[in-house]
Amino acid sequence: MLTGRLLFGSGNGSLTIVQNRITAFWFKGKELALAFGLTLAFSRLGSILNFFLTQRFEAKFGMQWTLWGGALLCALGLMSAVVVSSLDKVGMRQLGLDGAIREESRKVRIGDVKRLSLRYWLLVLTIMFFYNGIFPFIADASKFVEDKYDNYTQREAAYVAGAVYDSSLVLSASAGVLIDYVGLRGIFAVACAVLTLPVFGLLAFTFVAPLVSTIWLGVTYSFAAASMWPSIPLVVPQATVGTAMGLATSVQMIGIGISNLVVGQILGTESSDSKIPLWRWQRMMIFMLANTVACIVTSSLLNVVDHRQGGTLNKLTKRSARAEREPDTEPLSRGEQAEDEDEDEPPSRSINS
Fold first, then answer.
1. Domain 11-61+108-324 - what CATH class?
2. What is the pLDDT of residues 180-193, one digit of tens each?
3. HSE (side-chain half, CA atoms, 13 Å) at 276
4. How many whole angstroms separate alpha carbon 83 and alpha carbon 59?
5. If exposure means fewest CB atoms within 10 Å of the residue's CB, which of 38, 160, 261, 295 is most exposed?
6. What is the pTM of this model?
7. CA atoms of 336 and 339, how far apart (whole Å)
8. Helix %, strand %, coil % of the chain (to 5)
9. pLDDT one-digit tens code per residue, 228-258
10. Do the beta carbons of residue 296 and residue 193 sit within 8 Å?
11. Going by C-beta distance under 8 Å and a sequence separation of 6 or more, which residues neighbour residue 294?
């Protein structure tokens, strides 16, 4: 089972990176946030359908046929990937960009990672800290609801925990449309982090109905995903978008993995049936709060640095005159930009020629 999960995780992670790369290429300068929002919405739709259908399917047909059903879905995903890859190649060939993109990609070296801008790394840290408070919480949310609040069955607690995904399914596309229309991606990132603070505060220190907090978290999650991930192509060169997306995903997953380990130590139980003391749950929520505060700090620094470097992330609209005059990406280094300018100049002729 461990081998299967490792293989599935490696394939899923790589697929996410390629998917984000293709989305960023074809929708950059257009409805980029909407495209990422729709991608997130369909991803959450899969999570919700899995949540509602898998257990019933397994109860009716057994575990073996359930696993074969999962294999069938993976096969459908493979077919879809082949179709998308073909369309991507045909589209780039029609635009005459296949050779240029291939040539630019060859120029990218591993050492260039060190030259990625400060804005990029602050954005990566912002994403990591925000997701550190989302996925580890969702993993234990149903158990938390059962232990802290009275009169919740296991199924009802699971429904409350799943409200995060329900909210993001409904709002992700709308959030993308709004961000594409308004801009202000950096401001949205800070606002989402700030508005997430009350979620864990309510869960840690009050007995307000948990459904309020999970729906609230789903709303901030939708806007955060639609503002943070589409910002990456705006702060890195086109040829390095895939590398940048991959690095961001890796850092995000490392952060989530470490957070899960920390949460496991805080909760300190090996049995899912035993009730966990409320003080342990409170410490877990405080840890979530700490990650959210760190997200606020990094996103605030991101806005400061972005303002000093031209304000790419916080342009009011994608159709502004400034957006047309200035490039949406920045070179890996000023030295590399100077080299490109030198290459554009005609070679000097010798007086002896």
1. mainly alpha
2. 788 888 899 999 99
3. 25
4. 34
5. 261
6. 0.74
7. 5
8. 80, 0, 20
9. 888 888 888 777 777 788 888 889 889 998 9
10. yes
11. 125, 129
